[in-house]
């Protein structure tokens, strides 16, 4: 039994870990300062927001849907936090609670409209993207709002380990999501919905609460993700999170989450985030131009999608 589990774990994560090791090896040979503990800490403290968004996106993709609004909802949550603290003198704790609740409500709206009116989640989330971004600009008057140092503690590395509370929150979210997916009835039903929603309904299970619940969890994680850039800048930025939804989807796909639904893994998604972060950091250390970095990152994403599609077709043929 133990040998079987070890073999399954190696098959599940071995490819991603090998890819990470190769990237680290290549960049370590090309640059003098890459293979250092400081670089690892730098990468770790840069990825909390993408990790949280990608974990939420994993859950959404598992049920066979997509959420394009995560970046805008994250920015909206940051704006709510900033306005409450800077203009209304709310404490950090209550402001966080309000901002995360706001983001979760956005997720509920997206999920509820998709379920109740049968509008594709792609379209609904595209609308929510515009609404949340517009609301963010309205709240902040399209200007960066300085909050102050009270919020900075979320992104400040802890002296003992050199890692920020935001990163630790992201790691907790990864393992909590993995437990939810693999060890709970909720997670099993989500996988079943993504595999064959009609069969689930015909078996007498109401899919709506689970589907909407997934979007609420994704929204909640967007709210937590909004804490990272806001605390790092000590300000709420109306342009925060622009385009990050694409990176979140890319991390999921690199991690093996199926775009067709029914398959996903939060830990693999986290490894996908690390692949993207290591790739971008390494290219920056090599002084690669931004345009070339985008081309290389895009090629990696396309290759990952092709591999995912081929794997899906192969499994379907079997």
TrEMBL record:
Membrane topology listed for this record: Multi-pass membrane protein
Coiled-coil segments on the chain, per record: none
Subcellular location(s) of the protein: Cell membrane
InterPro entries in UniProt: ABC_transp_permease
Superkingdom of the source species: Bacteria
Keyword Zinc-finger: no
Keywords: Cell membrane, Membrane, Transmembrane, Transmembrane helix
Transmembrane parts of this sequence: 52-85, 92-117, 166-186, 207-228, 240-259, 266-283, 295-314
CDD domains registered for this protein in UniProt: TM_PBP1_transp_AraH_like
PANTHER family registered for this protein in UniProt: ABC TRANSPORTER PERMEASE PROTEIN YPHD-RELATED-RELATED, RIBOSE IMPORT PERMEASE PROTEIN RBSC
Designated name of the protein: ABC transporter permease
Organism, as annotated: Aporhodopirellula aestuarii
